[in-house]
Every structure is written in C-alpha cells, then in structure tokens.
Amino acid sequence: MENRETRGHYSGSDEMDDLKGQSVETSGNKVTKLENLMKDLDIEQYYGEKLTLGRILEIDQKTITDQPVKSNSDLPWCFLKKLMMVNVTARNVKSLCESDSDDESQDSNDQSGSTDLDFDDLFESPNTDDMLNPLDIITALFLCSDGLVQQEMALKMSMCQFSVPLLLPNCDTNQCTLMLWAMRDIVKKYRPQSLSESKGFIEDRIVLSELPMISFVRLGECSLSKSEILNKLLSNSQQHHDTFVHHNMECGDSPRRISNGLTEITWYLPCGKANIDIFSQPVAVANLRGDIASFETQYSFLCQTSAAVFVFFDYLDFSKCSLLSNQKHKTKVCLVGNYESKCFSKDALKEVATKLGLTKNIIIKTKSKNDADLVKDLRKTITDVVNNSKMKMTIEQMADIAHELGILVDEDSPECQTAKTNAEAITEEIQDIHIFKEDQLQRQGEIWKELTCLEKEEFRLKKVGSKNIEDYKSELQLKKEKLRKRQNSYDMSIAMTCFINAISSPGTERFYFLKWMRMNLDNLSRTKMSELRMKYKEKCKNSENKEEIKEIDRQISNSSLGIEHFFREMGQIYEASLSLSQTDPARQQLQHLPKLCAELLLDGFPLELVDGDASNIPLRWVSDVLSQLSDLVSPNRKILVVTVLGVQSTGKSTLLNTMFGVQFAVSSGRCTRGAFMLLIKINEDMKKVVNCDFMVIIDTEGLKSPELAQLDNNYEHDNELATLVVGLSDVTIVNVAMENSTEMKDILQIVVHAFLRMKEVGKKPKCQFVHQNVSDVSAHEKNSRDRKLLLEQLNEMTQAAAKMEKKEENKSFTDVMEYSPDTGNWYIPGLWNGNPPMAPVNAGYSEAVYELKKNIIHLLGNCESSANDISEFKEWMTSLWTAVKHENFIFSFRNSLVADAYMRLCTEFNKWEWEFKKEMYTWVTNAEIRISNFGTTADKSGFSDIREFLTSLESEASTVLCTWETRLQENVTQYFKQTEGHVYLVEGYREEFSKSATSLRCEMERTAFNQLTAAAEIREGMIKLDEIKKNDTKEIEKAVCALIDECRKKNIQMGETELENEFHKMWNDTLKKLSFSEQKTTNVFTSVSHYLRINLSHRGSHACELLSQKSLQDCGKESFKYTPEGLIKKYKQKILNLFREEDYKIAAQKQADSIIDACTQFVREKVKKKSNYSDTYIQEILHIIHEKLQNNQDVQTDIEFEVSLKQHICGFAAREFQKMHEDFIQANDPYRCLMKNKEKFRDDFIDVFHERDQCQKKAEEFTNQCLKPAVVDFISQSLGPNIIDKMLTCEQFSNRMSFQYSVLLDLLSKDDFKNYVSYIDSYEKYVKMWIHKQIVEHFSTASIMSEFEDQHLQSCVIHINGAINKAKTGKSDDLKTFVKDICKELGDKLVISQDALGAFMILNNADKEQFARWLTVSVDKMAKDLRTEFQTLNFEMKLKHLKMNPQNELFNKLVGCGKQCPFCKASCDAGGGGHTEHFASLHRPQGLGNCRWLGTQKLVTDICSSLVISDAQFQCSATNNEWHPYKRYKDIFQDWKIPPDASLEASDYWKFIMAKYNNDFAKKCSAIPADIPSAWKQITRDQAEKSLRMSFHS
Ligand SMILES: Nc1nc2c(ncn2[C@@H]2O[C@H](COP(=O)(O)OP(=O)(O)OP(=O)(O)O)[C@@H](O)[C@H]2O)c(=O)[nH]1
Ligand SMILES: [Mg+2]
Ligand SMILES: [Zn+2]
Ligand SMILES: [Zn+2]
C-alpha cells in the first residue's frame, strides 16, 4: 500500500530516499542492501573479482538470441549487450516475466471462452518490488566492473547521449567515487558559436575541457520530476531525447535501491547553428539523485564545482535552509519550486529566500506556467550563468575538490597511478611528433620502407637488368642484411625501453598503461590530426588536388603517433635481432617480445598485421607472435575470421566497433592505416554453434578511389591489402556507402580480383555487402532491382578480372565466392539520429548492425570447411603475403596447408591404391594356381576346356576389378566429404584422383589378363606333356607289376643284386617299347620378330626398312649406345643452350637406359619362374616401351632411335626367352623325366617285392617332393606384399614428397660428391638402390621377416592338416584316391608338381590310415626343417627370389610420373597417376645438370624457380629454338607448374651443394667452375637442411 501511495504522489518515487531499512535480515545473516541487489542481479561474484572487458565482449549464447528477459539476473547482461552495441534502448530493460505470465493467463482465458474483461487488472499495478530501476542496474554494474569496463561503459553511454556517472555511490560504505578515469576516454567534438563562421570545430577529451557546470539537486520531497525537466531542457524542439533516466520511463518508477546519491553528468554541446543550438556554449549538466539532506558530501562537491546549483523543492523551511547556506564556496544557487504542490508554502519560501539573500534566482512552476515555460525560464537562467560566471573547471581539476571532501577518485588506484607515471615519462618527452619518431622509433620509417622495397624486389626482380639473376638476388640479400645491421646498430631508445618495461608489468597495470598511452598520444596529435583529416576529407572530394592530397597524406603519416607505432618498433627491433647470432645476448634479451604481444592479443588488444605506412607485414614478428599465441591457448584452438573492406571513411571501423564492442580507431578522414587484427573469445556454450574457439576480426584501411590511388602507386597497396584480407577471411564484409557508389564500383573491382585469386588457391570466403546510410524500412524490397544490378556489375567485373588473371573459366561472381543477392545484402541506416554532437546513435543503426552480427555468426557456424587453428592461420597468412609480394599472385601462391592437404590426399590414395594392387595380386596369384592345377587331380574348376576356364576367370577378374574401382572412387568421394584436414583446399585435384582410379583399374586389368593368358597358354602346353608322362608312367608301372608277379612266381629267394638286374632288364625293355618323340622347341625369335613388326607397322615404311636392315638375332648383344646422327644433322646449324648435341645425346641415352632397365627387369622376373615362354611376354615388353616413350616426349627422339631401341630390347628379350623356353622343354622332356625317377622306381619295386611297409617312406616322399616345394612357392609369393606393407608404414614411403625429402636428406648427411653425381645423372638407378638399401636396413635388424614366414608356413601346415583330415573321412580305402583328395583340397593354394606326384603314385601300396599318420608327422618335420632353412638364408637372397619384388613395386609407386622439369630436370612430385600438371618441389641450379655458358664454358647457376619471375629468356627445340621469356614458360610447357621461390632461402639446399662441389662438378663435365654468388657461400648445412624441410613441407 505504501508503494501505491508513493506512486500516487506524482513523480515522487523518482525522488524517494531510503524506502526501506538499511539492511534486510535473511536467515540470520546480515545482508546489505547492495549485496541484496547484486544477488537479485546474480552479479555478486563480480563485486570482488571485477567484470573484465574480455568477459563482456566474448560471444555467447545470449549474443545472438533475442529471448526476452526472463529474470532479473538477465538484466545486467541484456543492458551490457545492448550498450556495447550503442543501442539507445539499452536502458529499457524491463524484466518481462510478468507480461509473459499475463499473456499466458490471457490465453487461458481465451480458451475458457471467457470474454469478460477483468476490470480489476486495469488498476492492479505490477509488483514494482520485483522490477529494478535502471539506475540501480547501472550503478551495480559500475560497482562490479574494472576500470576498463567502466571506461567502455561510460564511452558507449555518452555515445547514446545517456548521462554518465560523475559520482558513484556505494550505499554500503557510504562512500562515493569521482569517476574521472571512467570518463577519460570520452572525446567530444563541437562548434561553439564563435567558430561557426570559420567552420572550425573543437575536439577535446571531455574531462580535460574547462566547462561551466550546472548542477541540479533536490531538497526534501519534490513533486516536479527534475530528471524529466532536465531531459526537456536538453532536447531541442525537433527531437526529444531522454538523457537522464526519469520516472516515466520503463521501470523508471521502480524504487531505487542503491542508486541514491548517484550524481550523473552530461554535456550540452553546440553545433554552431543558432536555430538549433539551445546554448551557444558548451555546458556540463550534473544531476544528483536523492535528497541533498542525505547526501551532503555530494552536494558540497557540486557546490564547489558548479557555476550554478538548481535546487528543486516542494516545501522549504528554516531547518533545511541551513543546508543551503552552509556552503563555504558561494556558488550561485537557484530555487525551483512547484506552486501546484500541496505542501508548497509561499511564506516559508519567502522567509528562506530572504535569509539566503536570493531574490532573482527563484523559478516557480505555477498553473499558468507549463513545463515548456518552465524549461524556457531555466534555459534563460542557465544562459545567464554561463555567460557571466567565471566558474569553469575541468573534471580533472574536480579531483582535488573530491579529495578535500573525502570523495574517492577512481584514478587513485596504485596501478592506475603507476601506469600514468610510466606513460607520462614517455609522452612528456614528445615535442614534435615527427622528430620524436625519428629519434626514438628509428627502425621504422625509412629503413623499414627500404627493406620493404628490397623484399618486394626480391620477388619481382624488376631492376635486374642484364645482371645474373642469382648474383642479383644475392646482392639484394646482402643489402637487406646491411639494413638489418643498421637497425641493430641503434641502441634501444629511452622511449622504447620505457614502453617495453611498462607493458611487461603485470595484470591490469599494463592495461592502464596502454590506455594512458593511447589517450596521451591522442591528445598530442589530436589538434593537428583533426585539422589534417578535415583537410584531407575536403580535398578528397575533389580529386584534382592530387599533389595537395599527397602532401596532406604524407603529413598525416608523419604526424600520427599511436601505440601501434611503438608496437611496430618492437616488431622491427625483434626482426632485426634475428639477424644476430643465436647466442648474441642482444638477441636473447628480445626473445620474450612476441609472447608479450601474444598475451595482449589474447586480452583483446589489436595487433597490427599490415603496416600501412610501409605497406608490408613484418612476417617474422607477426608469425612469432601468432606462434606464441598458439602456445598460450590450449592446443588446436580453432579460429574463424571476419574482415571488412570498403572505401575509406565509410564507417568500417565504426561498424566493427558497434558489432563487437571493440575499439578500432575511428575518426573522420583517413584513419585506419594498414590492417589490424583482434581476437574475440567464443564462450563454451557457443562453440558448438560457431565451430571455433576464437573469432578474429580484421579492420582494414579504406580503399581509395582510383584517382587517389594513382598518386603514390597506392593502387598496388590497396590491391595487396584486399588480396590479403579476403584471403584470410571466412566472411568478408564489403562496406558500401550509398552516397559514393560510383567510387565503390572501382573498388569492387579490386575486391573481385581478390576473391578470384582466393578461389584459385582453394579458398572461397563468404561475402556480405553492407549498404550504409539506407534508412528506409522498405530498403530491402526497393533495392531488389539495385541488387540485381549490383550482381550484374559484379559478374562483369568477375569476367574482366578472370581475363586478366588468365582464369577465364570463372564466368560469374558466384563462381568465385559464396554470395547470394537475397541474403548477402544488408541495409543499415545512418549512424546518428539527428545532428551531432548532440545526436545519439540511431537505434535503427544499432539494430541493423545487430541483425548483421547474428547473420555473420550464423554464417560462421555454417562454414563447411574446417576452421584453421592459430598456427594454420599463421601459415596461411605467411604464404598469402609472400604470394602477394609477387607480381602474379595466382601463379606464385604456395602454401604449406595446401601442400599438406595434398600430401595427405596422396598418402591416402597411395594406401588405397596399394590395397587394390595387393588384392589383385593375391587374386591373380590364386587364379594362376588354379590354372596351373587345371586338368590335374587338384583341378576344381569344373571346366573341360582351358580356354573356357580362362574366359570365366577373366570375367571373374573384371568383376573384382570393378568392385575395387568403385571402392576406390568411393574412397575419393568420401575423402572429400570430410570437414577436417582442409580437404576443400585440394578440391581441385579431386577429378585428377578420380581419373587416377580409373586408369589404375585399366592398367590392372591389362596386366591381370595378360598374366592369366600367359598362365593358360603355358598350362595348355603342359597338359599334352602331362598326358604323355602319365602314359609312360603307367606303362612302366604295368611292367614293374608284371615283373613282381613274375619274380614271385619264380618262388626263389632273390638277392638284392638279382632284383636290381631284373629291374634293369625290364626297364630297358619297356623303354624300348615306348616311343619318345623329341619335344619340339619353338623359335622365340620368329614370334618376337612378328610382334615387333606389327608394333612398328604403323610407324611408316622407314621404320620397316630400318627393321629389316638388321636381324633380330644380332640385336641386343651389346649394351645399347645411341648415336643420333639424323638429329644432329637436323640441328647442326642452331646450337642450343639447353639441348646441345652432347646434352641431347645424354638425355636420349638416359631415356633408353631407363626403358631397357624396366624391360630387363620384366624379362628377369619371367625367367625366374622357370616356366615356358608366352607371347604375352613380348607384348607386355612392347607395351612398356611404348608407355615410357610416350611419357617422355620432352626428349626429342626420332624413328631411328625408337626402332633401334626396340630391336635392342626385343633381341635381348628373345634371346633370354629362347633359352628359358629350351630349358623348360628340356626339363619337361618325358624321357628325361622318366629317367630321373628310375632309381626311385627301382627302390619302390624292391620294397613292394619284399612287401615292406612303405608308409613312412612314402609319407616322407610325398611331403618332400610334392608338398614342400609347393609350400616354399606359396611363401615366396606371399612375402612380397608383406614387405611392401611394412615399408609403406615408414614415413619416407608414404608419398612421393616425403620420399624425395628423405632421399635428399640422406644425400646431405652422407655428404659424398659421388652420390650426388649418381643421383643427378642416373636418378632411377640411384633411387632403386636407395630403396633396396632401405628395405634391407629395415629388415636386417628385426625378426619381422621370420614372423611373416612363420605365419605363412603355419597357415600352410594348418591347411595341409585340414586336407589330410578331410581326406581321411573319404569313402575309398584306396591310397591313391586319398592322396588325390588331399591334392584337390589344396588345389587353390598350392601347386603340386605333376611330375613328382606321378612318381609318388607309382607302386604305392601303403595303408591309408598308416600313411595318413606318417604324413602328419612328416609335415610337422617339414615345417621345422623349413624354419631352419629360412633362418640360414640371408635376407637379400630371399629378396631376390620373391615373386613380387618389393623394391620394384615401391619404386614404381614412388618414382611418380617420371616427368622432369624441362629446365633443371628435377623430377615431378605430383601424386596420383592421372595428374595433369607436373611440379617439382625443389628446383636446382642448371649447372648441376651440366648446363654451361656457351662462351666461357662456366657452369650456370640459374635456378628455374628464380628465372620464371625474371625477364630472362630461353630457347630449346620446343620453342623452335626461338627465344622465349621464362615468365611465359607455360606457353611452351603447358603441363608444368613452376612456382617462383617463396624466399631467398628457398633453394638453399642445392645452392649449398653447388657452392660446395663447384669444382668437382666442373671437373666432372669438363667445364669451368661457376661464379658462385657470394650469398651462396654463406649457406650452412643447417640452412640447407631447413630449406629442404620447407620445400617438402616436412
Ligand atoms: N553520418 C554518418 N557518419 C558515420 C556513419 N558511420 C560512421 N560515421 C562517421 O564517419 C567517420 C569515419 O568512420 P570510420 O569508422 O573511422 O570509417 P572507416 O571506414 O573505418 O575509415 P578508414 O579506416 O579511414 O577508411 C566517423 O567519424 C564516424 O563517426 C554513418 O552511417 N553516418
Ligand atoms: Mg577504419
Ligand atoms: Zn626446374
Ligand atoms: Zn607429374
């Protein structure tokens, strides 16, 4: 009830003090009023540990949800969220829980059908106890915040034109604090009448402005709303604004619980226009909440600081009067009373007024005087006071008065004071900014600019002239070193020493310091800069004043001094120190700087990425800071990047500041230089939504219009900046200010270029267009036509850009980036609502920015590509910037993230490919076994015709191959679906790898079919032989049986010799009866000739002629030596640099050798099998030759070369195959086979005759003759894949790049010239040997090999025993059937020799059961024997006999496509079989490939990766010996990609080698040693190794 009355008392609650007792009693504990409120707001934890900026700015769930406030604990956050976005509705933070429940009850009413109006509701007021007064919330938040937050809050409040706390009360301690520090950052700009003519203005830090202050206080009860009247007083007629919270505002009537005694301040600032300005001079207005009777200290303070104090009252009497008269300092007091108030007493007033001597200054509201009239009176009085009073004071000066009165001052804290002293120590020394910078910050400025030029020149080689490129580069390097030396020669300046010391201080002190620095520096340069900026802006409107603009721009650059300059200096100090030796104390002292900066970054301070003055990134410094940052946060923290681009001074920084509550430098005129990055934390609860841990915001310098850009080549600068920024971002905001849309068009061109480039390097950022200063609500609708137009323009620009960058496949804007005209455009109304300086920020602006913010966070959450972690961001930035420094970005971009992703893909693909190959190998081997067993007892095929069987196997093979191809394709698809590992970066390679899968399948199919056909052909021949042998054996067996019968019949005791004699006789007789026709051998040469002729038939008559000139029999006897007579004749007149006669011969010979090598290897493998010849062999060889020739078309060869090479190989192969064939026929000759077994037959005969038990003997025989060889074969088949499997787990074999890296690293560590020669001259041979060594090394130590052997042996034994057991259950007792059953069971794993089996079967009378038992024993023994046998053999021997040769297999996998750089012969490092663009990671000086200068015969030091950016030219047969610029090498070698060096150190490896072995190389090829550039000589082994690591991204 008491409340109701209070509310009834008009505007009383606003002025009520102490509604409740001092404290509330809860459960025995005394809880103070303050604690109680904080508990309600749920912020009591921050009363001790203050709220920090980091906490407030971090992005959490609340950031993007618009849920209405549910409870009081939401209120502070809701207020802060809105305030940080400078939303003028921030103070309207009514807790909505009640209205919610109202709605609900309403709903339920509706449902129940009741339409009765609940009349009582209209009079029931919500329980105001639960509602909190905004002033309480503000007071509580100020009490709970640290200095920086307080400052930020005050700043944002003042932007909203809210009053800010001047004296902050603490109702618990009854202390109050002067909020000097909190207000320090407020800077206001205004134009007093005196300047309105000159259009000048005053820009000043408000706490330093000497202004008259008018205070408003209340004495006792008052029915006039002081605050409301003040609001009216300060608002002009067009626009009302609530500067102060008053009772008629949302929740303004809730009782104040802690904010009495709060004194607020605001400023009225004129704009120089008489009709608008309320006061022509600036005035500060203070407002004390509460009764001065209760807050005497505050009142005294106001009296001593104000030009006038207005006292509002209802009833004045004597007792109160003393309060007014007691003041020491006689400030002017005005009385404001309300005659309409019940308790107003004219008499009492009169008495008091007389007593106080007040006659004029009494203003009384009467019935005829409404609020407006009252305000008029007040304004008049104030104007008088302001015009006449000498009482002017800065807030800073008020601190002294505060001290006298025992009021605390927030700046008194020791941290703040120390920081202040430290900052002043630096800034007080500054007289002239330009001179200060030259004296104290020497390392930036000219030196750094010069360094930048050198760095860029190193990548552009514009001024190389006729100099040797490597010499020139070396020169540049020395110049750079010199400049670094100069930087190092300076002592650390006093200012920098102080600066670094100060920022090394702990905790909040350094924040205060940085803030002090920032403010002090701002103060220093403000006047000058404001002027310059104004001038700049004026001049920019008219681009004819080019020279003037340029001059102003230079002056701006010279006279600007911010903290960024100190950090910039720190960066230079650090970078320069890196050129000192590692142990130099000067260097070591500076090691901690990056960490310092990283900490600041983590605390939300911006880091300068691009130095806009020098147009460069101090790469080492920035990346070391980022590395440190990466170390500071827990590992794998992901970041997403939001950037802004747009025309200068279009409110980009303002937009970011509004959006994220940050503090990028904002000002009119040219302000942001370069680019700054800033880190914002993502709260746990949002990490799932946004998929990252930090958001990086990058603010950039505005792009200039082309006219302006022409001035100082800044076109380049803008382009570089835009490319970098777009390249770094996940979302790019393109800021378009409506008024200068033509300017925008030019700038968009730059942006489109940047996007296009990014697409080419695999990044597709999202883009949002923000149109500023569009206030119409229907903007989006109305502008749909404009958007279409914009898209059309963008499309045109894309096409134009695509043409320039030679990437014409990009046709529309959406090809290069993610953009939708419907969702990618935002319209934002103007920033100010009304006329600055008195205009608050437009609520529409804040709201629109908020919508954009939500959308951007949403977009980030939808990023398909995985976010970078910090070190990846660093990598990406480094490579972007390096590429930017080149002239041709796309072609220079080399990024280790892309390379990494590519390597991972290669590694994966290699794995899949190997799986496929292994599977096919197993399958083909098994099919071969089945074919070998065709027509034998072990045959399970079910076919009677081997050709039919072959066909069925072929279709089976096709099915298997298809399944695997599909699987491979699926793997590729699946791989690209994942979001981790940046696979989107290698999206461009997807097609290639998919093609590789198909071509792999084709290749596998071809070889599989060939192998099957060969096996079938051979088997076909064997079937006839087997038949003959079987018959022969049968005849002998018959004869032996007959002999036994005969001997038995004789019935006499026969001795061993007699039996033997009988056997002999019988043997000879039988053999005579058998007819042994001589097995005919075929002439392999004829067959090979035939195929060779067919192969060459389409190569024209000259080929045939050449072919018939030489008989194949005579070919391939001696090693191949090619003498290129024809070709030399052709090119005689034109001596070439690259392909001189000698070089050509060497190249051709090398190619021939390589082909011969591959074919020899093939022949050897076939011969090793000791089988018959098949025509598929020669077909395969011709195929190999064809492929290899095809693959190496850079070596110009003629038909003579081809014919003679083919003849050579075919001749050699035919000879080998002929011998193999003859050996085979010999080995399989039936007569010989029979003779071989004669003794065995004889022994068996004797055994049978004596009826000896044969079981054990036969079992042993079966095991040793039949099973054992088959098992050994099986094992040797299986070991190859095992070894490869094992080797592939080694890092160096995982992909081609790692392999190359390991080989080169090994070379370096061996440090043997001979090795280098063989690496360069006979690469394949060297590499093969190297692989072999690796295998041997890997298997020499461990017992891995015997493990594998054991494993396979074990599986065989199990298989055999299984077959025995199964056969035992067979019906027949017949031993022969028993053995057949066993063989059949083993038929698809083991190939049992038919000869051995035939011999075993003869005269076999063993008992099945017994035999089986003995057989198991024998098999056991065999296993043991084999194990020992394996152990005695050394690994290399085994390796030789494997069916699948691991070393060749690995070689084929890792040698890549075999292409070599057309200039330096470094081999291609691309992975996958189907790649279309070749690249080498590391190019080498051409002299290493025997290239020399024609005149001097000196070896050439040029490296192709440098040449491609120079103006040098080359000529070769491919250019028809015309000179052609290296820059356009792609015209000639389309399928090569030779990116320029990423740095001067990129090729250190080969430079080091060449410098070291210069003389050796020269001697080797009888040339004169090269002139080694001097920088090469300084390269150390470690540096060489480092460059290797960098080149291969290991
Ligand atoms: N009238 C008006 N002024 C604006 C608006 N947005 C920003 N400003 C003012 O324009 C000035 C320049 O704003 P900045 O945010 O520094 O602009 P910027 O694009 O970052 O400028 P540079 O970094 O120099 O390219 C500031 O004084 C802002 O207050 C707007 O929408 N309307
Ligand atoms: Mg800016
Ligand atoms: Zn090369
Ligand atoms: Zn290649």
Describe the overall structure.
The structure is a single chain. This protein is an alpha/beta fold and about 1600 residues long. It is about 55% helix and about 10% strand. The protein has 66 helices and 25 strands. The chain has a 9-stranded mixed beta sheet with strand order 12-11-10-7-9-8-3-4-13, with helices on both faces. It is elongated, with a radius of gyration of 47 Å. The model is unreliable at about 1-30, about 100-115 and about 1130-1140 (pLDDT under 50). Bound molecules: guanosine-5'-triphosphate (GTP), magnesium ion (MG) and zinc ion (2 copies).
State the main characteristics.
1594 residues, alpha/beta, 9-stranded mixed beta sheet, 8-stranded mixed beta sheet, 57% helix, disordered N terminus, binds guanosine-5'-triphosphate, binds magnesium ion, binds zinc ion
**Which ions and ligands are bound to the chains?**
guanosine-5'-triphosphate, magnesium ion, zinc ion
Biggest beta-sheet profile: 9 strands, mixed
For the biggest β-sheet, the strand order reads 12-11-10-7-9-8-3-4-13
Question: In terms of structural class, how would the helical and strand content be classed?
Answer: alpha/beta
Question: What percent of the residues sit in helical stretches (DSSP H or I)?
Answer: 55-70%
Please give the radius of gyration in angstroms.
47 Å
Principal-axis shape equals elongated
User: How many helical elements?
Assistant: 66
